[in-house]
């Protein structure tokens, strides 16, 4: 099995450029020791400082979103070529906060994914159900639709640059976490869905992260599960000591 373990931090709307550089410099020793891929997704204004600070280390830098057009009248948006020009390698697409607060839909997630892949970015594609959807027993239905629409028209070759992050919406920033068994169950379903779309070999090679409040205390248990190939880390990615614990757990 050749799939990579990837730990990606999502800083959300935190840190100025100077603060970002300082935090990355603090994180570099732990990242350089890690036996997994390390990505930090930072606010747009921090990207130049982050790329510069990460040079010569194992840390790759990602954006927290990307637009589907290369340029145009899209006030406040950032295109994939703009990210390319900064040396950014990754982009988060479809995060639940984008869906919840900014009108992101499965269709716009698809357009953003296609644009990012067309310009050589690796996509961290987020899927996940709300608490209401889980309680109704439609978790798998919701995630299957999110995946199938998001990946519509994405070739098997392009899909090699997609990492999928399962982030149960009810476990983001709430202090609630899916149990390791719940996380693994949904991650396995995601892998089965990928197998139906792209074949078993592609599914086995796809990195499927868990992204619902993974932290220093629960990372080892979550990452020990066979279908949890890393994490999309929120709050803990702003705390160097905690992030180091997660990287160590992912390296075992």
UniProtKB/TrEMBL annotation:
InterPro entries: Aldolase_TIM, TIM_sf, TrioseP_Isoase_bac/euk, Triosephosphate_isomerase, Triosephosphate_isomerase_AS
A cellular-component GO term for this protein: cytosol
Enzyme class at the top of the EC tree: isomerase
Residues the record marks as active site: 95 (electrophile), 167 (proton acceptor)
Pathway noted in the entry: Carbohydrate degradation; glycolysis; D-glyceraldehyde 3-phosphate from glycerone phosphate: step 1/1; Carbohydrate biosynthesis; gluconeogenesis
Subcellular localization, as worded in the UniProt entry: Cytoplasm
Single GO molecular function: triose-phosphate isomerase activity
Keywords attached to this entry: Cytoplasm, Gluconeogenesis, Glycolysis, Isomerase
GO biological process, one term: glycolytic process
Residues engaged in binding substrate: 10-12, 173, 213, 234-235
PROSITE patterns (UniProt xref): TIM_1, TIM_2
Enzyme Commission code: 5.3.1.1
Catalytic activity: D-glyceraldehyde 3-phosphate = dihydroxyacetone phosphate
Assembly and oligomerization: Homodimer.
Family: Belongs to the triosephosphate isomerase family.
Described purpose of this protein according to its UniProt entry: Involved in the gluconeogenesis. Catalyzes stereospecifically the conversion of dihydroxyacetone phosphate (DHAP) to D-glyceraldehyde-3-phosphate (G3P).
Protein name: Triosephosphate isomerase
Biological source species: Ethanoligenens harbinense (strain DSM 18485 / JCM 12961 / CGMCC 1.5033 / YUAN-3)
């Amino acid at each position: 099995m050749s799939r990579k373990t990837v730990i990606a931090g999502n800083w959300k709307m935190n840190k100025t450029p100077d603060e970002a550089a300082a935090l990355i410099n603090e994180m570099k020793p732990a990242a350089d020791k890690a036996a997994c891929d390390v990505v930090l997704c930072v606010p747009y204004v921090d990207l130049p400082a982050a790329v510069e600070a990460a040079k010569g280390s194992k840390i790759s830098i990602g954006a927290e979103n990307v637009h589907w057009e290369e340029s145009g009248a899209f006030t406040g948006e950032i295109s994939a070529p703009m990210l390319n020009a900064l040396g950014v390698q990754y982009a988060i697409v479809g995060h639940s906060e984008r869906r919840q607060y900014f009108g992101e839909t499965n269709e716009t997630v698809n357009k953003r994914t296609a644009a990012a892949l067309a310009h050589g970015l690796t996509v961290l594609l987020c899927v996940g159900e709300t608490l209401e959807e889980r309680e109704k027993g439609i978790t798998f239905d919701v995630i299957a639709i999110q995946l199938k629409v998001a990946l519509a028209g994405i070739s098997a070759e392009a899909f090699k640059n997609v990492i999928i992050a399962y982030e149960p919406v009810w476990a983001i920033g709430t202090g609630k976490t899916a149990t390791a068994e719940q996380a693994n169950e949904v991650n396995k379903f995601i892998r089965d869905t990928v197998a139906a779309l792209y074949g078993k070999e592609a599914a086995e090679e796809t990195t499927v992260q868990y992204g619902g409040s993974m932290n220093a205390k629960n990372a080892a248990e979550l990452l020990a599960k066979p279908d949890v190939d890393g994490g999309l880390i929120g709050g803990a990615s702003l705390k160097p000591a905690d992030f180091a614990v997660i990287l160590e757990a992912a390296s075992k």
